[in-house]
């Protein structure tokens, strides 16, 4: 027996020693099933694929669309995404009412250009029905080499099914952008929380302050989330001393992220919509609960669960839901979303090509009103 085999045997014995009698019996059943298929199935059988399939089934049995087995391809793509560049059409996906749902199209991508919207439900990817497809399987089917094509069949509330033929592109996420709206009011958009977001946000704030910014509109619309450490660092720049978000685990354990900021740095209004999810909801919830600013727009997506990557080997991992986010006032985000202080719906017949932005206009109005009261 080689050294690698000896180490594997020791690890197997360790895990077996931690199991209950019922779990041991179920494990034995798994081993018997693998052997029975290998021995009896009429076609050729790969034992490794059988065991990998059992891992997928194990995670799928949790009934949680955000807990998945990540094969080498998925794992590699996830690593690319958090670095801010990947190949695809520019859609962030979630699950709502057990249906594959667009959380948000990413700015400047084929999906946004084609008119795909937050809340659209994807019923087919090419010819494949998405009904029993896991979230990460869907992501894997939509992504692909630059220049290749994929067709998404979309169901939109109150409308007939519509096909969107898309050409994949290299998706490079510019997470922070901004400008001055007038001589004193700045505007910063965060499209996703990636590895450099907090650094880019500080740089953009400094740039706008040099231009005279004394108040800020922060746009988190269609921001599907990203890295929690980055959203916390952004919140630390906006929320006064005290809690930002609590992460509550399966046994009720609570980890609370805190801000040490002495006071709110500048008058603030935050734009949110149904495409604002996860990390962007953390920032919005903290700002609302701590009185650091007002939220304008429509209710957020409601994705408030925490996933942890658990490597199985160097090429694969489990992504497992380990906790839920709660806002400083102990509100659960998951499945509920955050209702803004000022609700501004976008009319269904609104011309997307129009340069008008009713939600931004309202945010500016709310910010000016708050400045007049000071």
Tell me what the structure shows.
The protein has 374 residues and is an alpha+beta fold. It has two domains: 85-171, Roll (Pdz3 Domain), CATH 2.30.42.10; 173-347 and 356-372, Alpha-Beta Complex (2-enoyl-CoA Hydratase, Chain A, domain 1). It contains ten helices and 19 strands. It has helices at residues 3-17, 21-40, 47-60, 72-82, 110-114, 135-142, 197-210, 228-235, 279-289, 358-372, and strands spanning 68-70, 85-88, 91-96, 99-105, 121-125, 128-129, 149-155, 162-167, 169-172, 176-180, 185-190, 215-219, 242-249, 254-259, 268-272, 294-297, 305-311, 317-326, 342-343. The strands form five sheets. The chain has a six-stranded mixed beta sheet with strand order 10-11-12-15-16-19, sandwiched between helices. Helix 2 (21-40) crosses helix 3 and helix 7 (197-210) runs parallel beside helix 8 (228-235). It is globular. The termini are far apart.
Main β sheet profile: 6 strands, mixed
Task: Please compute the radius of gyration using only Cα atoms.
Answer: 23 Å
The average pLDDT score comes to 91
Q: Which CATH C-level class of the largest domain is it? A: Alpha Beta
Number of helices: 10
Order of helix and strand elements from N to C terminus: HHHEHEEEHEEHEEEEEHEHEEEHEEEEH
Instruction: Output the structural class.
Output: alpha+beta
Query: Might you state the CATH topology name of the largest domain?
Result: 2-enoyl-CoA Hydratase, Chain A, domain 1
**The number of domains:** 2
Query: Any idea what the CATH superfamily of the largest domain is called?
Result: 2-enoyl-CoA Hydratase, Chain A, domain 1
| Bulk shape | globular
